[in-house]
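Q: How would the structure tokens look for this protein?
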Amino acid sequence: ETALSRFFLSSVRQHGVIVPILAHPDAEGQIVVRDGQRRTLAACEVGVTSIPAYVVDAADEATVRIVQQLIANEHREALSDADRAEAWRQLALEGMSPTKIARATGAKKAVVEAGIAVASNDLGTTALVEHDLTLDQALVLIEFEDDPATVTELRKIAQTNPGSFAHVAQRRRDEKATREQIAALTTEYEAKGVPVVDWPEYGDTTTLFLSDLATAEGEPLTEDTYAGKPGYAVCIRDSWRGVEVGHVVVDWKAHGLRKIAR
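A: Here is the predicted structure in token form.
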């Protein structure tokens, strides 16, 4: 019979079971404790009704080994996000789905998915291990993997001013979405054979918007009447109203057009 000291019982009574036990379902679906009998007995004796547990398939030796390592690390010291993420990645490589990993380890599915994504990415892993970022912060960095300047900026903010991390990340995310929208529109117009030019600067006299031009006969230009004709082009920019598309004529004088007097 396992001896339970007064000190151990008192600790479980006050704080509950801190380190999860390892268990598995038997043939009838009942949960059998594989590692952690002492913690389980102590919880029963002092009236603790629930304890943390990793519930895994007993026949899956690789999974059992990884979970036992997790528990051993919990005994030694509090696990870091990097430790947990790597363990979840290993479990995923063994064929466990995020749902099963979450159920077995007591973590939320979304957190497990984030951990696997971070641990499977060099930038994410570096953010956790070398720069001591949180799992959520590391996951955000992966979004900007193709933008080293933003990665550096967010990494610094995470370490020096973590309270503003989410705000700056969202701002950079919005800017990235705007750039992608402008790029998509540019590709779309160019595929139709429409030139895309820079937005006319104030005072530009060679490139004017259709709304400022008319034919030699004085007929105002519109997109419907002038699209595809000589000098026709579009310009795209980000403004306070969002992404704007302007319709212009380049070298309008050369095409026999008139500027509308305002």
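Residues 165-191 form the longest helix (27 residues).

Strands lie at 21-25, 31-35, 53-55, 196-197, 207-209, 213-214, 232-239, 242-250, 258-259.

Upvote if useful.
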